[in-house]
Amino acid sequence: MPESSRYDLSTTRGSLRHEPPDWAPWAVTRSRFGVDATGYPWSTGLDDTTIVSQVQQCAQHFLQLDESQRLRLRVPLDRLNRSYLASLRSVDMAIELGIALESIYAPTKLSEGIALAVRTRAARFLGGSLDDRKATVIALKDVYDLRSRAVHAGRFDGEGGNKWRDASRVRTTLENGQRLVGRSLVKVIMEGESDWEEFDISEAPGT
Questions:
Q1: Domain map of the chain by residue range?
Q2: 147 CB contacts (<8 Å, ≥6 apart)?
Q3: Which whole-number Å values give the CA distances from 86 to 27, 89, 96, 177, 193, in the listed order?
């Protein structure tokens, strides 16, 4: 074997393993981090090659943002990443998603109604039909309910929480929240962040 074709595997093994950027989600599938072949902002019926291409395009857009924008988006990106940790309890997952949502949709402190502002902004920002926007509002209301229970009680099935006694329902709700955070981040990265105070008083879609 020619000398030039020999490799020291002890030194190259690490370089052969793909290492994602430090802001990338811990677990990335079609249904996570906004890469959902059945939902906005991606088109339906996408194959793996197209999905990978769109993920790469999103990453390139992120790297082209100025430093202040990247630093601000690292907060929700990091919190979304943390919510995917396999060892994370659902209680911690709910808290991480709450922080991610507020860092996207409420970057400046609101004096009141932060949960309402977040879900209303998210529904309008992510768009879709009226039913789609209603579904976003309902989904984020549930995520915030779980987040509030996690913060104040460390559990979901306390007073008034009968519907959260089903662990699979809690998990499904939180996974839906992850997808909404991911879609939000993709749209902010690809299209730019809104001035939320102006966004609140702008004309609603379809009016």
A1: 26-201
A2: 94, 95, 97, 98
A3: 9, 8, 14, 16, 30
Strands (E) across the chain are located at: none
Residue range 109-152, pLDDT digits in tens: 665 688 899 999 999 999 999 999 999 999 999 999 999 999 99
> For residues 159 and 6, is the Cβ–Cβ distance under 8 A?
no
CA 156 to CA 161: how far, in whole Å? 6
DSSP codes of every residue in 25-86: -SS--TTSTT--TTSTTSPSS--HHHHHHHHHHHHHHHHHS-HHHHHHHHHHHHHHHHHT-T
Residue with tokens 């879900």: 119
User: What is the sign of the dihedral through the CA atoms of 95, 20, 61 and 35?
Assistant: negative
Tell me the whole-structure pTM to 2 decimals.
0.73
